[in-house]
Amino acid sequence: RYDLGLSPMGTTYRAEGLSIGRDYMRFEGMTMSSQLSRSDLEVEETIGRGACSIVKKAKLAVGGNVKANIPKGETSRPTHMALKMFPIRRDKKRREMLLKELRSLCSLECDCLVTLIGAFFDDDEGTVTLVLEYMDRGSLGSLLGSDPGTNSSTSNHLSLISHVESNLGRNGLPEKATASIAYQMLWGLGYLHHENMIHRDVKPGNVLVNTRGEVKLSDFGIASQREVGQEMNVTVVGTTRYMSPERLRAKPYGSSSDLWSLGLVLLECCTGKSPFEDVTSQVELLLTVEETSADEWIPVDTLSPGLVEILKSCLQQSPERRIPASILIGSPWFGDMGIESLDDAADV
User: Fold this and answer.
1) Is residue 166 over pLDDT 80?
2) What is the residue-averaged pLDDT of the chain?
3) Disulfide-capable partner of 137 in 127, 209, 318, 332 (CB 3.0 to 4.6 Å)?
4) 87 and 144 in one domain?
5) Residue 1 resides in a domain
6) Which residue of the set 40, 201, 219, 258 is catalytic?
């Protein structure tokens, strides 16, 4: 017998306000999806792997009858979805990651966060599957490192993607493309921080893109909810290269740690590489961060003053000096790039 948090019948996964059956999901008494099961979907190729889950592409099967959330921007049920599968049998860590991600996805609603469509439980395999909005151009990380000939699309809305793909292998993206990514990431982070959430793993691999030019944050398995009055977290989780100095030192940290990570992602976008590509350990990374500064990483001679200001605002050694996302998104630089709304950002 395994501690799966199952009901006596063994066909429902229950934990902390969540109830997931073979074809439904409820959260705190509210039905989030129904008539959504494995039989409604045709599972296609694997599109991602993490420490606790596997992500596969899927489409509605012929005759599939789904009642679930429709992602913003879609006018009807999506034909393709992303299935994030958590094998939870005998694995406490996976169950904890699943619960954190599900609670975050059920509680948050923002245009710049990936939408949860529904979930179902396979009691035979002991697997909970999250059905997520499918971002058809994958992650920013894969785009920045992919071959220009891959991930082709017939969509007519390819402005941001065209900017990215036409500059692969060069020294970074055009500023308009970087501005589009920055604006949408700031919108998502600003929302999370307003809701007292810290993402804790902002990196190119957790920034997803679609052919409409939309950019969305994903992967909330290690996101942290701050209680009212709680200013700092102390746990060390996330991808080391993008960690803030205070997190590398295992010191208390807050939402400003996400801004440091954002700064590194944007620096990678506009220069084509990370300033820490050759670093091989957390100790070496901390020493590099402490002994250098953003002035040495940012090519001020090739970037506009507005972009330099954004990068320097994020990459401050002292977390107190980093400007919050809700303020940075009002930078005049975005206006200079023709971006005053999310629609503008997607249409660069």
Assistant:
1) no
2) 84
3) 209
4) no
5) no
6) 201
CA distance 190 to 160: 22
Question: In angstroms, how far is CA 293 from the centroid of its own chain?
Answer: 27
Residue 309 has pLDDT above 60, yes or no: yes
Same domain membership, residue 338 and residue 200? yes
In-domain check, residue 20: yes
Radius of gyration of the chain, Cα coordinates, nearest whole angstrom: 20
Pick the closest to residue 141 from 206, 194, 211 (CA basis): 206
**pLDDT for the residue 245:** 95
Does residue 117 sit in helix, strand or coil? strand
Q: pLDDT digit string (tens) for 251-268?
A: 999 999 999 999 999 999
157 within domain boundaries = yes
The pLDDT value given to residue 327: 98
Whether residues 117 and 156 share a domain: the answer is no
Cα–Cα distance for residue pair 26/32, rounded to 1 Å: 5
- List the strands of the sheet with 18-20, edge to edge: 13-15, 18-20, 24-27, 30-34
- Burial tier of 291 (Cβ tally within 10 Å: 0-12, 13-18, 19+): exposed
Give the span between the Cα atoms of 182 and 62, in whole angstroms. Answer: 39
Instruction: Examine the pLDDT at 228 and tell me if it is beyond 70.
Output: no
Contact between 122 and 173 under an 8 Å Cβ cutoff? The reply is no
- Kindly tell me the burial class for residue 264, based on how many C-beta atoms sit within 10 Å of its own C-beta (0-12, 13-18, 19 or more): buried
Containing domain of residue 55, as a range?
Answer: 13-133
pLDDT tens digits, one per residue of 91-136? 788 888 888 888 889 888 999 999 999 999 998 888 999 999 999 9
124 is catalytic: no
Choosing from 114, 133, 152, the residue where a domain stops is 133
| CATH classification of the domain holding 330 | 1.10.510.10
Last residue of a domain, one of 133, 150, 168: 133
